Amino acid sequence: MSAPCALCGATWGEHRRVVQGETLDFCCGSCGDFYELAIVEVRRATGWPRVDRLFIEEVDGVDGSGWARFGESRVEFDVSGLPDGSKVTRFALRSPPSGAGPRGG
Ligand SMILES: [Zn+2]
């Protein structure tokens, strides 16, 4: 049995690829494609140099919501894409990154 899909958590399928230098398991190529696209969107929105972990928690058709983490910072986001994972059609952070910026206050 392979590890759960890094994007959606599905336990079926065996698609493995290297993302950001890390070997990850996905259920299918579409999830792998979308994972990489979502990381690009998260990095663009947050300014992070990389994303340590990203997960899509809820998917309703082509619309999903998930979270991403870099160090101690974490963001939640809404994302939409094509069914085959080839393109992100909408991406929006729900809130600014937590744990980032000046401390105190
Ligand atoms: Zn998947």
Structure commentary:
This protein is 17% helix and 39% strand. It has 105 residues and is an alpha+beta fold. The chain has one domain. The strands form 2 sheets. It has a 4-stranded antiparallel β-sheet with strand order 3-4-5-6. A hairpin with a 2-residue loop joins strand 4 (63-70) and strand 5. It is globular. It starts with 14 loop residues before the first strand and ends in a 12-residue tail after the last strand. The model has no long low-confidence stretch (mean pLDDT 89). Bound molecules: zinc ion (ZN).
Briefly summarize what is shown.
The chain has one helix and six strands; from the N terminus they run ββαββββ. With 105 residues, the chain is of the alpha+beta class.
DSSP summary: helix tally: 1
Low-confidence stretches: none
- Helical fraction: 10-25%
The set of bound ligands, ions and cofactors reads: zinc ion
CA radius of gyration is 14 Å
How is the secondary structure organized here?
Blueprint: E1 15-19, E2 22-26, H1 29-46, E3 53-60, E4 63-70, E5 73-81, E6 88-93
Antiparallel strand pairs: 1-2, 3-4, 4-5, 5-6
The structure holds zinc ion.
Keywords:
105 residues; binds zinc ion; two-stranded antiparallel sheet; four-stranded antiparallel beta sheet; 6 strands; alpha+beta; 17% helix
